[in-house]
Design goal:
Elements lengths: L1 H17 L22 H19 L9 H18 L5 H25 L29 H9 L1
Helix pairs in contact: 1-2, 1-4, 2-3, 2-4
């Protein structure tokens, strides 16, 4: 959480100062929440999250169990780009700058977490042993000791 907040702060500092001249021409749909900066923060968050998860998945060779990440996130990123472009919420250069900043910082954050304390990672190296499998049918054979059988009849 700290990483994505820091990435958003960097986006406001760098991308906000570069593209502040286009702030007055936005569609009201772009400013649904009052007080939010008029920047494509969504691109920063999606780029950071996708890059961070991708780094961990690739480094720890978890691609086979996380293919949905590589399908869903590009769809979300493209959908957000199209929505922002269609509604004229931000210039295309600002959209791609925010995406690039979030992605680069996501990879950097993944490297930092991986080196400092791997236990803080979202995926901490789940192996095949920890993956649940469907149980198979098992047969049990019970035998009763004849001496104990007689004791239970007396009680």
């Amino acid at each position: 959480m700290a990483g994505v907040l820091l990435a958003c702060f960097l986006n406001v500092l760098f991308v906000g100062n570069i593209f502040e001249s286009a702030a007055g021409t936005k569609n009201p749909v772009c400013n649904v929440i009052d007080g939010m900066p008029e920047l494509p923060i969504g691109q920063t968050i999606l780029g950071f999250t996708f890059a961070y998860l991708s780094y961990i998945i690739i480094v720890h060779k978890l691609l086979s169990t996380n293919t949905a990440t590589f399908v869903i996130f590009p769809i979300l990123i493209i959908a957000d780009l199209v929505w922002n472009y269609t509604n004229k919420c931000a210039p295309v250069v600002a959209l791609f700058s925010s995406l690039a900043l979030g992605s680069v910082f996501g990879i950097l954050w993944g490297v930092i977490i991986d080196r400092v304390d791997p236990e803080l990672q979202f995926f901490n190296g789940i192996g095949n042993k920890e993956i649940c499998k469907r149980p198979t049918a098992t047969k049990y054979k019970c035998t009763i000791d004849p001496a104990k059988k007689d004791e239970t009849k007396k009680n």
